[in-house]
Design brief:
The complex is a heterotrimer.
Chain A lengths: L2 H13 L14 H10 L1 E6 L5 H11 L2 E6 L2 H13 L7 E5 H9 L3 E2 L20 E13 L24 E4 L5 H13 L4 H13 L3 E3 L6 H6 L4 E4 L3 H4 L5 E4 L6 E11 L5 H11 L2 H11 L2 E2 L16 E3 L5 H16 L1
Parallel strand pairs in A: 1-2, 1-3, 6-7, 6-8, 10-12
Antiparallel strand pairs in A: 3-10, 4-10, 5-8, 5-9, 5-10, 5-11
Chain B lengths: L1 H30 L13 H7 L4 H32 L6 H12 L2 H12 L5 H10 L11 H25 L3 H9 L4 H12 L1 H17 L2 H7 L7 H10 L6 H25 L25 H28 L8 H5 L4 H8 L1 H35 L4 H8 L7 H12 L8 H11 L1 H13 L3 H9 L4 H29 L5 H4 L7 H10 L3 H30 L1 H9 L1
Helix pairs in contact in B: 1-13, 1-17, 1-18, 1-19, 2-13, 3-7, 3-10, 4-7, 4-14, 5-11, 5-14, 7-10, 7-11, 7-21, 8-9, 10-13, 12-13, 14-26, 16-26, 17-18, 17-20, 17-21, 17-23, 17-25, 17-26, 21-23, 22-23, 23-26, 25-26
Chain C lengths: L2 E12 L2 E13 L4 E5 L6 H9 L6 E6 L2 E5 L4 E2 L8 E3 L11 H11 L4 H14 L15 H14 L4 E5 L7 H17 L3 E6 L2 H7 L2 E6 L2 E6 L1 H6 L4 H7 L3 E11 L2 E6 L2 E5 L9 E6 L5 E4 L8 E11 L4 E7 L2 E7 L10 E5 L5 E5 L1
The chains are: A alpha/beta, B mainly alpha, C alpha+beta.
Chain lengths: ~350, ~575, ~350
């Protein structure tokens, strides 16, 4: 059965309320799986790191070889667009922060696909018919729990502006690091009551003269080693860097924010059936469990949480999709505040 | 003969040009094109945007201090070491060979990170030790500063300068110095008035290469400059292409054109400053031995200094890496840290199929890439030094083209280029890109080596009836062995740790070590990163030893045959 | 084998100026003779040699070696160096430092694909010829300058070329060794049927070695002849001056008398060796110091006699060299080591007419 027919069928089935009656999402893949096996492999471009075990599990489970190339988000659009324009896009499935996939979709590089495996995800995880979000690259502050006693630890975002943390914070450069910029803007929109409160917080944080690094990657090491006490970083490091003495906040009910992680199939995928099989697998509870457990990812699969103390009770919200012009505008402003 | 020289020159110009002009041309197109690709509507907007930022002036100021400072440090260190090694009776000369090579094998990111651990102002090991020892209130060193960056970049660039200066120093005609002494000049005056000016070509060559290299360098500014809030061109470019999700490489390329222009101008200035015969130290044809300068009372103190330098440049960073690879997370050395040491990161790295593939690919690229690169470099150096045909100057400039473009941008140029060829996404693309970008690493040492082969040695082979190829094979190449070994080592160690191109060009199946290391760095996994880094250094060491042994075997080949027959 | 050079031209551009290294040179180098190109540095002699061997490409002209045209612009022929079958000894010897003496000498045979047994035999013969027996296994770098020179010669001879070229081969040897080697070289070459082209700026070397000498200046050949002809009967002032020490005095020809040519010059009237020169024409009188006979005291002025005063007297070993002021000219003369003359003495100088050489003005 050609893919279009199958999708039409699924839509019809969904419309008729039959989707729930299907034995399982993967079972419906019978036809695709055979084709995928014939295609042999699925090529996955992603900015998410350390997911080799998930890709290996895909290969083991489906018999289709998963090939993963890590492309950093700053080179993602440029790489994929260059390849696509030369007619040489190798990727079957692409995974990147939501804004990146939005850009690719506008350029007609993505194909529509709605994976049955994501049926239980919240509605906002499907902004259109090609992009599927599956997790949130959640950002928050981490601190060294051997250096910072629980009583002293910051309870709320506002506490980061406390002068006692002067010269003791590490963060990615807020003038250039897109995720950090988005996070700061997200706090304004989703956490602080007024723009004034937020600006007071940002200026207080800047007054503490945080040490800047290039991205989130170098943030945990200075916290672990005690060079700095607090870092604006990713709670997933508590999992990947165990047994490092890292703890996260805020635990008092303020939400955690992050850019959604999204994925999609490419329009001219060299292995279209394998692409669908890959995406179905990636969105399955099994893969989500691996992402959460091994990599500390926050996934949208209901009931699956990373093994981090208290994270299941946290509210993790997606940050509004900021376009490049807005990121650059805020970046310039933060540069003024933090470095001016 | 003229015809053949011209054919060889233009053939090489075509090859090197195709290799190095293509990516730069793509970037040039990109910088004049609206949108994010290399081709499209013409615009000057990117140049206007790139060059009208008021912050640029400060950045350029920092860049000049950083680049000139680190290059001066590297050149002066290399000069002192080369002088001590080739001309004095300092003990422990093997240290110099090690000193010259090891820093090339350490990935620059790791070297910088190691220095951050050693000398960060909060809890850097050296700072803490000094604060404890002398009861200081504040840290004496801040590695996150312009001077810290100069120190680390200088140490990293020192080996290249050393490998260029040391051979010239070794083949220096001592009678020039002796005559200066006879005319009543003291050791210092002789050094300043005779030795250094005569060595000027080599020193300038090292200096220019250092400037070009540090202008394109990114690791040190990223790891040390960013925390210290010292912005230089490389980090400024990084910021330009990392704010937002659809970075405009064309705009970065527009700025990169200045770096390129600066480098090209420098190379031309260098060529004109050392025009014609003055370019290279000429060597008298008779056998001579450089006199050894006795250091006297300074002998042991200087040796201690060299030992200290070796400790700082080699032992400390490698020890930091080894330590980091054994502790579970970044910890300050303590009893607790030593108690928690394990092989965990090592077993994880070796269990990772991608890391193993990356290892294989990198070794392949290092060995094959360096070999092909050296063969090409031999011909290029031959034209530049020996034939000196009309196109030689052009050829020499071409070899620097990709090399002098800021690293984080040139990779994109190569991608824009390769995507239009069947090489895209193959290991061969990496191979070609590496050779194109790092050609000066092969050409420079070989050019110096060629200088030492007197034209008569080659001409007499022709007169004896040997063809040009036979002459190359039997006379020139054997005499070039030291240069060939140096070039091969430079290229192989560079290719083994190459990051800037690889991160853009590697695809499934063509993963390489440095990209794998970068992945670990992005995840903050310093332990795995250090383990893989040490593996990388070990492989580099093995390659260096192999190259030296093969070189020695070739060099002693004649001697061995003599003794066997005697 | 004879070498013929016709209209050979070679220009260099150096510092924006065009230098004529060779300016339409015509030359025939006779077979099986020692032929020397002599001249000051920069006269084009080395360029000419390198054009013959093929290491430089002329701009114009033709070169034949034997019956073969090896280079001709008009015919578009350019036989590469390695196909010209020549032997050459370089100024630096160009001994390959990474090879043994044996390998150095065997090289021309090896590249011609000669079998090993023959190579061994011929190398041994060549080394014997240059008296280096027993050194064949030594590393070439561990030889003295003289030994290296002989290895270079053996290498040039081993393939039995019909032409051998020497580019100032003795200039790197010390004076005594140079003299010995020069004699040996003459003997070696005398024993072979070979055309030798020898480049030097040393007139003694040229005179002692050559069957024929071509004196060059500024890219042209000024004069060709036997050593005796060049020394005693040079046509050109430049040649007379270059080939030996000479007092050169401007002169005007008066006429021919008694089979001699009569001239006037600042020293007075002289009878000279006959030259076909019209009366009234300008010439240069060339007086070699060794033919000026010194006598104490003034003499009556007459033909070929001059009175002067010794300004300086220098002992140089086998002779005294005297500078004598006569008629405002400073003349160089020689006298025996046992002379009683002192500085300041008045002397008379006499010279036989056959030693009064007239050369071009």
């Amino acid at each position: 059965m050609p893919p279009l027919d199958r999708r039409t069928f699924l839509h019809l089935a969904g419309g008729a309320g039959l989707a729930a009656a299907l034995p399982s999402a993967l079972a419906a893949e019978g036809g695709d799986l055979a084709k995928a096996k014939a295609e042999g492999r699925a090529v996955f471009y992603a900015n998410i790191t350390a997911v080799e075990p998930v890709v290996a599990a895909f290969t083991a489970e489906t018999g289709v070889k998963g090939e993963y190339t890590r492309i950093s988000s700053s080179k993602f659009v440029s790489t994929v667009v260059t390849e696509a324009q030369a007619g040489k896009l190798l990727a079957d499935v692409v995974q990147a922060p939501l804004p990146v996939l939005e850009l690719l979709r506008e350029k007609g590089i993505l194909a529509p696909y709605r994976s049955p495996a994501a049926a239980g995800f919240p509605d906002w995880s499907r902004p259109d018919d090609s992009i599927q979000m599956f997790g949130i690259e959640y950002v928050s502050y981490l601190y060294n729990k051997t250096q910072v006693k629980d009583a002293d630890a910051p309870k709320r975002y506002e506490d980061l502006a406390d002068a006692k943390w002067k010269n003791r914070i590490v963060m990615a450069d807020p003038a250039s690091h897109a995720s950090t910029i988005s996070w700061l803007v997200g706090l304004k929109e989703k956490v602080f009551a007024s723009e004034n409160d937020w600006m007071t917080f940002v200026k207080g944080l800047a007054a503490n003269r945080p040490m800047f690094v290039a991205s989130f990657g170098p943030t945990p090491a200075p916290i672990e080693s005690g060079e700095k006490a607090i870092g604006i970083s990713m709670p997933k490091y508590i999992v990947t860097k165990a047994p490092a003495p890292l703890a996260w906040g805020p635990r008092g009910g303020q939400p955690l924010l992050g850019t959604p992680r999204a994925m999609a199939i490419t329009a001219k995928a060299p292995h279209p059936a394998a692409a669908r099989v890959f995406m179905d697998f990636w969105l399955s509870p099994k893969a989500a469990g691996m992402l959460a457990k091994d990599v500390g990812e926050y996934v949208l699969t209901p009931g699956v949480f990373p093994p981090i103390d208290g994270i299941h009770a946290a509210k993790v919200l997606p940050i509004r999709d900021l376009d490049d012009a807005e990121i650059q505008k805020w970046g310039a402003q933060f540069k003024q505040i933090f470095k001016g | 003969m003229n015809d053949r020289s011209a054919r060889l020159t233009y053939g090489l110009i075509a090859i090197v040009g195709a290799l190095t002009v293509a990516p730069v041309a793509m970037l040039a197109f990109g910088s004049f094109t609206a949108g994010l690709d290399a081709f499209g509507h013409f615009t000057l907007a990117k140049y206007v945007a790139a060059y009208t930022d008021p912050a640029l002036l400060k950045v350029l100021g920092n860049t000049v201090i950083f680049v000139v400072g680190s290059t001066l440090l590297a050149t002066v260190l290399a000069l002192v070491l080369a002088y001590l090694n080739t001309r004095t009776d300092i003990p422990g000369k093997f240290l110099f060979g090690v000193l010259a090579i090891v820093p090339m094998m350490i990935p620059h990111v790791l070297f910088s990170v190691a220095w951050a651990l050693l000398a960060n102002p909060s809890n850097g090991l050296i700072n803490r030790a000094l604060m404890d020892a002398f009861a200081l209130d504040s840290a004496p060193f801040d590695i996150y500063s312009l001077s810290g960056m100069i120190l680390v970049e200088g140490l990293l660039n020192m080996p290249i300068a050393y490998l260029i200066i040391a051979p010239a120093m070794a083949s220096f005609d001592v009678s020039l110095e002796e005559s200066s002494r006879v005319f009543g000049a003291g050791t210092w005056r002789t050094l300043l008035r005779i030795t250094l000016p005569v060595l000027r070509p080599a020193i300038l060559a090292a200096f220019v290469l250092g400037i070009v290299r540090s202008l394109a360098s990114y690791a040190v500014p990223r790891v040390l400059g960013m925390p210290g809030r010292v912005e230089v061109l490389a980090t400024y470019l990084f910021e330009m292409i990392s704010v937002g999700f659809a970075p405009d490489y064309g705009k970065a390329a527009a700025l990169g054109m200045s770096a390129l222009a600066t480098s090209i101008v420098l190379i031309w200035v260098y060529r004109s400053l050392t025009s014609e015969g003055g370019r290279f130290v000429t060597i008298s044809s008779r056998g001579w031995r450089p006199t050894v300068v006795p250091l006297g009372r300074m002998r042991m103190p200087l040796f201690a200094l060299v030992t200290l330098l070796s400790f700082i440049v080699i032992v400390l960073p490698v020890a930091v890496l080894a330590y980091t690879s054994f502790v579970p997370y970044s910890m300050v050395p303590s009893m607790q840290a030593f108690a928690q040491m394990s092989w965990r990161h090592w077993t994880e790295v070796f269990a990772d199929a991608t890391s193993l593939l990356a290892l294989r690919n990198s070794v392949f690229l290092a060995v094959v890439g360096a070999t092909v690169g050296v063969v090409l470099s031999i011909f290029v150096a031959y034209v530049i030094v020996k034939l000196r045909t009309r196109g030689a100057a052009l050829l020499e400039s071409l070899t620097y083209l990709s090399f002098s473009f800021p690293g984080i941008v040139i990779g994109v140029g190569f991608m824009w280029f390769f995507v239009h060829t069947p090489l895209y996404a193959t290991l061969t693309a990496l191979l070609v890109g590496y050779i194109a970008t790092y050609l000066p690493y092969g050409v420079r040492p070989l050019a110096s080596a060629f200088v030492q082969v007197h034209a008569h040695l080659e001409e007499s082979s022709l007169v004896c009836g040997a063809s040009r190829m036979t002459t190359m094979r039997r006379i020139i190449v054997p005499l070039l062995i030291p240069g060939v070994v140096a070039a091969w080592i430079l290229m192989a160690t560079m290719f083994l740790r190459e990051l800037t191109l690889s991160v853009v060009l590697s695809r499934p199946g063509s993963e390489v070590l440095a990209v794998q290391i970068l992945g670990f760095a992005d995840d903050g996994l310093w332990g795995k990163l250090s383990a893989l880094g040490i593996v990388m250094i070990a492989i580099s060491t093995a390659l260096v030893l192999l190259a030296s042994l093969v070189g020695r075997w070739f060099a002693s080949g004649a001697k061995a045959r003599l003794e066997a027959n005697a | 084998m004879e070498i013929r050079v016709e209209g050979l031209t070679k220009h260099y551009v150096a510092e924006g100026r065009t230098v004529k290294a060779l300016d339409r040179v015509d030359l025939t180098i006779p077979a099986n003779r020692i032929f020397t190109l002599l001249g000051p540095s920069g006269c084009g002699k080395t360029t000419l040699l390198r054009c013959i061997v093929g290491l430089e490409t002329p701009d114009d002209g033709e070169i034949r070696i034997g019956n073969e045209v090896v280079w001709s612009r008009a015919r578009g022929v350019a036989v590469p160096t390695e196909k010209r079958g020549l032997g050459m000894v370089f100024q630096t010897y160009a001994i390959w430092p990474h090879m043994s003496v044996f390998d150095n000498v065997a090289y021309p045979l090896q590249v011609r694909g000669v079998d090993r047994a023959t190579i061994a035999k011929k190398v041994a013969a060549a080394l014997q010829f240059v008296q280096l027996v027993g050194l064949d296994r030594r590393s070439a770098t561990r030889l003295s300058g003289g030994q290296q020179q002989r290895v270079a010669l053996a290498r040039a001879l081993v393939a039995e070329p019909k032409v051998i070229l020497f580019d100032e081969p003795l200039s790197n040897l010390d004076a005594k060794l140079r003299e010995e080697t020069r004699k040996e070289l003459k003997r070696f070459l005398g024993e072979l049927d070979i055309t030798a082209v020898y480049v030097t700026h040393d007139r003694v070397e040229a005179l002692a070695l050559s069957d024929s000498i071509a004196v060059m200046r500024a890219g042209s050949i000024v004069e060709i002849g036997s050593p005796q002809k060049i020394y005693f009967h040079a046509d050109h002032r430049f040649v007379a001056d270059f080939i030996g020490r000479a007092n050169l005095i401007p002169a005007t020809v008066r006429g021919q008398a008694d089979g001699l040519t009569m001239i006037d010059c600042a020293l007075g009237a002289f009878a000279c060796a006959p030259r076909e020169l019209p009366p009234g024409s300008e010439a240069t009188l060339c007086l070699r110091p060794e033919f000026l006979h010194l006598h104490e005291g003034a003499t009556r002025p007459g033909h070929n006699v001059v009175t002067g005063r010794i300004e300086s007297l220098a002992f140089v070993g086998e002779v005294y060299e005297a500078e004598i002021r006569a008629a405002d000219l400073l003349l160089l003369a020689r006298t025996g080591p046992d002379t009683a003359l002192r500085e300041g003495d008045t002397v008379s100088l006499a010279v036989e007419p056959e030693h009064c050489l007239l050369v071009s003005a």
